[in-house]
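The authors assume throughout that readers already know how a fold can be written as discrete tokens. What matters is that the chain and its backbone geometry are given together, residue for residue. A single example would do more here than another paragraph of explanation. For illustration, here is how one protein appears when written out as sequence plus structure tokens.
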Amino acid sequence: MDAKLSLTIVVYHNYRDAWYALESIEKYTDPQLSKQIFIVDNSYPESSEDRNEKELFEKWISQYHDVCYLYTGTNLGFGKGHNYILPKLNSDYHAIINPDVLLIEDTFSSIIEYLDKNNDVGMCIPKIIDENGKLQLVYREEVTVLDMFIRMFCRGLFPRRMARHTLQNKDFSKTFQVPFGQGSFLVIKTKLFRELGGFDNNFFLYLEDADLCKRVNQVSKLMYYPGTSIIHKWEQGSHKSKTLFWYHIQSMRCYFKKWGYKFF
């Protein structure tokens, strides 16, 4: 299917979130904008309740003609899950979306218009807010060992350093180049996404977005675009789960091994 826009949502048991995200996309996106939505399901049902949720989700999404559901049968991880559809992409623009996001307006038409007018911009991140309308700190300087250590182990102890890392000195009413934008909602030119080979499969979870952003900025630009907003219900799971915390540590090792240990 040829489309102006393709989208991928990677699901891991969070079917209800994914359904709300999909519903908001279908509700607010201009019907004249041709799109194809890929749902990549990394879940593996372990109980009858899991299987029932999966079946209900498949039934829910079957009403949409532009949704392609792909069940992997295993947990590929975030980046590999999004890369799963690379061979299928036939679009001008591709959106990388978390299941826990909600559209509140026609975000894609606005972003595509901006990208169409700016040939030097390869990827775009919109204004991302929480459910109370507060700007989320998902725009960051390039990753350093110190900043990751503060985030993982010393949250709240070095506010000035963290304000610097999260670009809080920027004017968020204007566009600006972003070294690292969180991967909860990114729109990239499909040709560029293909040329870069998508995400680096060496990352299972966490920092694959930092790696992609760095590679985009080496050949093009990742820009913050304030012309549209989306809601992100950010749960910050690695601060609550030992397993996710370990994935974060592993990804840090992978990132710094690849790009060098920048300490400050």
Remarks:
- The domain at 3-132+174-233 is CATH 3.90.550.10 (Spore Coat Polysaccharide Biosynthesis Protein SpsA; Chain A).
